[in-house]
Each structure stands twice: as C-alpha cells, then as structure tokens.
Amino acid sequence: MSTIAPAPAAAAQRAPEPPGRRRRRSPLPYWLSIPAVLVLIAGMGYPLVWQVWNSFREYGLAQQFGQDPTFVGLDNYIQLLTDTGFWAVLAKSIVFMAVTALATMALGIGVALLMKAIHGWARVVLQIALLLAWAMPIVAQMTVWNWLINARNGVINHLLSLLPGVDMIGHNWLVEPLSFFAVASVIITWASVPFVALSVYAGLTQVSDEVLEASSLDGATGFQQLRLIIMPILRPVLVILLLLQMIWDLRVYAQIELLQGFGARGSKYDLLGTYIYSLGVGQGKFGVAAAAAMLVMLFTIALSWVYVRELLKEDKS
C-alpha cells in the first residue's frame, strides 16, 4: 500500500526573493511631487525664513521709517521667556485649547453616533444643518453670536430672564475674562463640531454590521460595543481629529479678535494669536512678535509630530 507524503509547509509558501532581486519602486511619484514641493517652498519657505531672521533682529517702528534693523541674537527670545505676561498667555491658551478640543470631540462623537442611529430624512436634515454651520464664514458666525449675547437686547439674556427669579437683562458676557473665554470656547466648539461629527460618522460607516450583530448575540450591550469594538476601530481617526483640533484651537485668532472688538479689549482677554498681533501691530515690536511666533510654531510642531507618527503607523499597518 503506497502512501502519498503530504507536501511540506514550506513548499506552500513562496521563498523570499534575495535582497538584490527585490522589485524597485518607480521614481515617478517622486518626480510628480516636485511641483507641489516647489510651490510649498515658494509660498511658505520665504515667509518662514524671513520670520526666523526677524526674530533675531530688533525690527520695530524705527525700521518702518528706514533705519536698518540691528542683529540682537537671542535677546527677543530672552525677553519673551522672562516675561510673566507671555507665560500667562501661554497657560491660558493651553487651557483654552484643551477644554475646547475635548468638548468638540465629545460633542462631535455624540452627534456622529446620533447620525448613525437615525435614518431617512432626519439624518439628511441633520447632515445639511451641520454642513451649513461648518460652511458659515467666521464674520457671519460672530455677527449671529453678537446678536445672541448682546448685553442690551441679546436673545440669550432674554430667554434666561424668563426663568423665575433670574434677571439677566443688561448682563455683559464679555466683561469678565472667565465668561469671555467661555463664550469663545462655545463659539469655536459650535463651529468645529460639524467637521468632527462628519469625519467620525464616515468612520462609523466602515464598522462591520456583522461584527456588531455577533457581539450582540454574545450578550454585549450597546455601551460595551461602543467601548470595546467601535472606539478601537475608530482610534486612528479620533487621534488625528483630536490633534488637529488641538492645533487649530491653539492658534485661534479671528474669533478672539472679533469678540474683543465687541467690547472686551485688554491683555487679560488675549490668547497667543491676539497676543502676537498686539506685540507686532499694536506695539510695533515686530522682532519680539516674530520670536513669539517661532515659539508657537515649535509648540505646534511638537503636537504635529504626534500626528505624523500616527500617520506613519497607519501607513505601515
């Protein structure tokens, strides 16, 4: 009786090619990316180099009238790093960034889960509302919010005054720094939630229904599915969204500037964006403002590195 010997497992696998015979990647993608890189260098490289160079010079109002700027080395950076006002603004900006970014992520994930749960025309209406809110220009947003929080005839004060024992008529939300930044955080969160919600919803559509049904048959509750299945699948998307929100909220400028224009001027209402603007344009200390911008850029690069590292992990997987 003859027997057929089973084929060895190694025969079923293709032997790896020698290193010298590995397929070489085509250089075409690199050649095609050259025009984009050149445009970036021309559009961003020159202003960046000029800003770095100005951060080492005394470039103020005198230079606007023809006087040559003088090289001062690290004096602008030393002046900033020894200024308690700069550290106070930096601390406020970091706290504001953390609160606003976390609130945006929490509300965005909640709205995305709501979009996943509802169907038909209700989902379409919600998506259109989110797109309209996201597409609204910043000046239009701030005009609407100024109408809402106006001290004399604001809608929010009027509605709150309808509550028993509450009189908010004439209350100015922008006088106290804490309420000022609370209003700014609400405005920026409201404007950023649509982007997070739509991005997370796109990720939710990629979660397999079969996996959720199988976990449901195994007795998993909705919260357990969310915590143990959905969130791990969406983790790369959530990490990227959180980092982007942190970077955007750290560099916020327009909303703070417009809120200050509504009647809250002063350094106690500044974040990094308005602080740098007031140094350069307001006080004429363009060299110090350039140094502050460089420090903010370094902090942003540190945050962006986490984002880039996450992208590299996703590319490898």
UniProtKB/TrEMBL annotation:
Subcellular location: Cell membrane
Primary location recorded for the protein, binned into one broad class: membrane
GO cellular component terms given for this protein: plasma membrane
Biased composition (Low complexity): 1-15
Membrane topology: Multi-pass membrane protein
Keyword entries, A-Z: Cell membrane, Membrane, Transmembrane, Transmembrane helix, Transport
Transmembrane segments: 30-49, 94-114, 121-140, 178-204, 225-248, 286-308
Occurrences of domain ABC transmembrane type-1 (ranges): 90-307
Pfam families: BPD_transp_1
GO terms (BP aspect): transmembrane transport
Chain residue ranges for the region called Disordered: 1-24
Protein family: Belongs to the binding-protein-dependent transport system permease family.
Record's protein name: Sugar ABC transporter permease
